[in-house]
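Hi W., the heme C complex you wanted:
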Amino acid sequence: MRIPKLPLAVAGLSMAAVLTVGWQVHAEATRATFPALDKLVHYTTVKRGDVTEHIMTTPAAIDAVKNRQPIPAGTHFVLVDYREGKVFRYFVMEKGQGWGADYDERRRTGDWQFQWFWPDKTINTAENTARCQSCHQSQSGAEYLFTGSRIPRFNGTPIE
Ligand code: HEC
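Structure:
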């Protein structure tokens, strides 16, 4: 049996157009920048099925957490998401003085902003970083971090 291809292709195209418009509404740059990865320390690894996540931050942030001090402005946290041994994407959080004021209170995550970068370090403009914030808001008592509580045990070997 021959399946008529054209109407399906057209339907597919218009669906793609609808989705693209939807994404563009949410696409956003934030203040979070891509950091110099060689200045960061890999303090923990999280494995989820086929995904291996290396989580890293600055030596100054590690010291701050160990000394129960606030994490300094200018700090990056990066989650490097590896799939099949290759970088699939980078999730970045960066803290900046007064950056929380960019968002209303319901969305705010302290002074942290978020971004999703592809391996070529361009941002994923299809992502709405409000989603990152809404999940990380649950960690408001822990600097909006899920793995910050591992830092006090870190002594040079990434904690698994
Ligand atoms: C559904 C909840 C959820 C969403 C949405 C989410 N995260 Fe996370 N994030 C986590 C969890 C849980 C971890 C801890 C690592 C793990 O368990 O995989 C984490 C870890 C991180 C870390 C490492 C620091 C830390 O908190 O431990 C960064 C950086 C990060 N996420 C950035 C992002 C960015 C950027 C986005 C949006 C593009 C995002 N996250 C969306 C739940 C979420």
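The two ends are 54 Å apart (CA to CA).

W.
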